[in-house]
Amino acid sequence: MYTEDILNKIERFTLEDKHLDWVHDRKKVSALFEITPKCNFRCVHCYVGDDRKTARELPYSDIIKIIDILFDNGILFLTFSGGDPFTRSDFRDIYLYAKKKGFLVEILTNATLITEEWIKIFEEYPPLLVDISIYGSSNEEYEKVTGIKNGFDLFIKGISLLQSAKIRFALKGILMKGNVKSLRRMEEISKKYSSENFRYSYELVVDRQCTNAPRAYEVDPLEGVINEIKYGVNAVMLKRRGEEILNGIDEDNYRDGMLYRCSIGDLAVHVNYLGMMGPCVECSERGCIINDNFDDICLTFEKFKEAVAPSGYKCSGCKYKTFCTSCPQARKREYGDEAIVKERDCVVAELKYLYYVNNLSIQELEDYYNKNYRR
Question: Which of 43, 201, 218, 350 has its CA 20 to 30 A from that of 326?
């Protein structure tokens, strides 16, 4: 059985060795399964957008079919997301089915629907990780972001239950105008309740209706970069990247001249709430996992790896690219063209380069930004 082969590899190799082995074999070992668009929150920045209110859910029988297909095709790591998975009345049965099938299961959630009943289930069938979004450090901030008045209290209740039961969980923040001043407090909450590193992002994307509504809540690029330097685990990775460049190592060069420089299509698949499968969240509609052949859908991922950047592509040869998170698929959804690069992405990458490679101080970074980009 393929799953048993993978478990044997876990026993024999380090994580780095396993990753290299899987990449070499081009095995899909991880799946993010968006089992519902529905959520008890109404977050202003949510990329699901109006689908939270209007989209249908797949019936339980189709969810089980998809889990079986993922299992039969060697998927080991299965992450349930939404919306929020806990809004499904049948999520208990879905979760237990996946666990008893042998998957290593993660759950993406806001934690506010976690109950004593769920804790009993987790104690018997532990998740690999419960990955929890944090949106602020008070009920007032939660209401600004999520539209729920007592959201923070419900969040604390949920993570307290997990902590007491010693269920592994991590907190990840979304930095935006409604909560930017409480990032330090969010990190303190993470350290108090969880043993995992605190992560966060400040890059918002257009929603699935291709409106720019979430963009209105983006923080200023400089504010995002400075906070990233000060808080969370991101700075450790970014510092290492800077040191590698200074030592003449730039791993991103091997994809220079290509449109996609990420690991799209290598190890993971994404299945949305309609059963459409693709290589990632930004590109999830390459084929229907129930009606189409799994391997045939995966073959369509190769087009992204083979896509050559067009002539004059702004990112080709850019020295800041190691610090860039600009996604061609996100650009296609926003602008209708994978090759159009958003200025904000360029500015963020440049500021990181100036700090981690050119060793500018935060004050020098502020002065540079104010002189060249402040409007």
Answer: 43
Residue-wise pLDDT for 260-307, tens only, equals 888 888 899 999 999 999 998 888 778 999 999 999 999 999 988 888
- Inter-residue contact 150 to 136 (CB < 8 Å): no
The domain ranges of the chain are: 2-218
CATH number for the region 2-218 comes to 3.20.20.70
Residue 53 burial by Cβ neighbours in a 10 Å radius (0-12, 13-18, 19+): exposed
Is the pLDDT at 347 greater than 90? The verdict is yes
**In 318-335, which positions are buried (b, 16+ CB within 10 angstroms) versus exposed (e)?**
bebbbbbebbbbbbebbe
ω into residue 151 within 30 of 0, thus cis? no
Give phi and psi for 170, each to the nearest 5: -135, 150
342 Cβ neighbours under 8 A, 6+ residues apart? 326, 331, 334
Question: Where does the pLDDT of residue 2 fall: very low under 50, low under 70, confident under 90, or very high at 90 and above?
Answer: very low
> pLDDT, tens digit, for every residue of 82-107?
999 999 999 999 999 999 999 999 99
- Give the burial string for 174-189 (b: 16+ CB within 10 Å, else e): bbbbbbbebbeebbeb
